[in-house]
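Module 6 notes. Inverse folding takes a fixed backbone as the condition and produces residue identities as the prediction. Think of it as a translation problem where the source language is geometry and the target language is the twenty amino acids. Below is one complete input and output pair. Work through it position by position during the lab.
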């Protein structure tokens, strides 16, 4: 490739030099012709202004030794003109460098000059091709008595042009040499930068790179030294929710403010940085490049995060079931003892108390929360809380109809906040978590209070940041995602999520979701046979 680039650049430099020389020579030839014609015209005007010439034409015959011939020859030798011809109105020559031509008519028409016009031309006469200047000849009364024609040999003009060509070629050759040296230096630099790869190799590498970038299931974002996005593969477009319009713009312009933007721009450093974009949980890494830019990779771990949370929930349920199994065995032993002691009334009362506790909890939840998904979630969380020694209460102000537009989103919000509250109060005396869900028109207001240590005022915004947490990471990955998702889900619906201090100490999380409920009159009709769905869910929760 080095030799190809060098030859191409030398050829270009040579072509430019030849073209420049040609472009210079073309106007130079014309300029020299113009200069010769003006010089011939100036000599002709000088001769015509000599009073001896006009007087000689009027008073003497055209002879070889006449005054007109002598004066014209004197001026011709002094000016190095090719010829000076003085003629009368009958076109007869009174002077000529060749004496035998005196007294004869001229070979070219002097009509324009005899009409009082000045003429400049390049023409061919008896002395060959020449640059000519013709002017009228006036007597003392300013009457035209003849004309003066002066010629400068055209060969002398061409000789000047030819004499200038070597110098021009010398300059062109020098320019070509400098261009060849510059081409060699550039080619060497290109060779080092391309590692001596041929054009075909570079083209193949680019095609392979494009196929690889757009084929991998990991988002790749390349930024230049100015921090502008210069490349996005298909997966990055999908994960970030942007398209080709982002190319050439900074992450702040393309994505807006947020942790994802800060990671891509390099304002947040580290490895495997967690960030949330929309409803996706991403793991980002950023690597600087030699040209001052950077390449960032993005991995989608939304499903992994969901599986991890489901695993945590499953483990919690398993622990709760294990504890319930132990408690159930104790209750069965108690019941067996009452029966063996023939204390039948006490046995019946004991069974009623046990069943009534569970039934009361489920009925309390389903009476206040009519959405089956949320009701089932809170019944399950109440069981887990009881096994962890925490009292989970549903506020008396809770009233939520079964008209949610996005029940799964609200389940995610409630589940995250309740889990965080249970973690916060675990191991504390008189641990308690209170949940309040109420509808205000079409707006849903969620409030979760706990009796834990609370959130310091300087950290109340920080806890909603992606990846921030004060807890030990779980086995499946990093913490710091739950509260960030809660805020993102709330803001996506035009709502808000905030934390403050609870009345009796601890933390109070408040989430407001506008337009979260459908209009009552738009409620879809319940299909026949589905009326017992909530009841079935309630029975399963028991």
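Target side of the pair, the amino acids:
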């Amino acid at each position: 490739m080095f030799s190809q680039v060098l030859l191409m650049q030398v050829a270009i430099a040579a072509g430019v030099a030849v073209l420049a020389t040609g472009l210079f020579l073309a106007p130079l030839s014309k300029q020299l012709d113009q200069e010769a014609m003006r010089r011939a015209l100036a000599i002709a005007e000088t001769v015509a202004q000599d009073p001896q010439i006009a007087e000689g034409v009027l008073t003497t015959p055209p002879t070889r030794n006449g005054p007109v011939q002598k004066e014209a020859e004197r001026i011709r030798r002094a000016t190095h003109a090719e010829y000076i011809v003085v003629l009368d109105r009958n076109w007869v020559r009174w002077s000529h460098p060749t004496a035998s031509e005196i007294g004869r008519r001229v070979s070219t028409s002097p009509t324009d000059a005899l009409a009082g016009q000045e003429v400049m031309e390049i023409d061919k006469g008896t002395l060959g091709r020449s640059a000519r200047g013709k002017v009228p000849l006036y007597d003392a009364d300013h009457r035209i008595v003849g004309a003066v024609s002066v010629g400068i040999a055209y060969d002398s003009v061409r000789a000047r042009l030819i004499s200038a060509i070597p110098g021009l070629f010398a300059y062109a050759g020098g320019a070509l040499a400098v261009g060849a040296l510059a081409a060699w230096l550039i080619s060497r630099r290109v060779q080092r930068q391309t590692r001596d790869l041929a054009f075909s190799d570079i083209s193949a590498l680019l095609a392979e790179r494009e196929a690889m970038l757009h084929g991998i299931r990991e988002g790749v974002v390349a930024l230049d030294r100015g921090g502008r996005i210069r490349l996005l593969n298909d997966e990055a477009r999908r994960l970030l929710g942007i398209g080709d319009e982002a190319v050439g713009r900074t992450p702040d312009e393309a994505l807006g403010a947020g942790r994802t933007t800060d990671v891509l721009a390099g304002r947040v450093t580290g490895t495997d940085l967690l960030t949330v974009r929309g409803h996706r949980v991403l793991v980002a890494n950023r690597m600087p490049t030699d040209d001052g830019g950077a390449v960032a990779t993005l991995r989608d771990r939304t499903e992994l995060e969901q599986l991890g949370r489901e695993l945590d929930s499953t483990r919690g349920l398993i622990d709760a079931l294990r504890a319930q199994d132990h408690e159930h065995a104790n209750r069965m032993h108690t019941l067996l003892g009452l029966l063996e002691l023939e204390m039948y009334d006490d046995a019946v009362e004991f069974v009623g108390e046990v069943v009534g506790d569970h039934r009361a909890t489920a009925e309390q939840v389903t009476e206040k929360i009519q959405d089956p998904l949320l009701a089932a979630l809170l019944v399950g969380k109440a069981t887990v809380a009881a096994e962890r020694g925490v009292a989970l209460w549903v506020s008396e102000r809770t009233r939520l109809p079964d008209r949610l537009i996005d029940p799964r989103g609200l389940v995610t919000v409630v589940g995250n906040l309740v889990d965080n509250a249970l973690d916060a109060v675990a191991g504390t005396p008189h641990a308690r978590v209170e949940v309040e869900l109420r509808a205000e028109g079409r707006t849903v207001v969620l409030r979760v209070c706990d009796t834990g240590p609370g959130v310091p005022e300087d950290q109340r915004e920080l806890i909603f940041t992606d990846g921030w947490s004060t807890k030990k990471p779980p086995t499946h990955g990093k913490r710091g995602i739950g509260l960030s998702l809660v805020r993102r889900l709330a803001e996506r619906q035009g709502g808000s999520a905030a934390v403050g201090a609870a009345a009796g100490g601890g933390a109070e999380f408040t989430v407001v979701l506008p337009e979260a409920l459908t209009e009552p009159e738009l409620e879809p009709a319940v299909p026949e046979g589905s009326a017992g769905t909530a009841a079935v869910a309630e029975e399963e929760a028991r």
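Reference fact for the lab report: The chain has three domains: 2-160, 201-300, 361-541.
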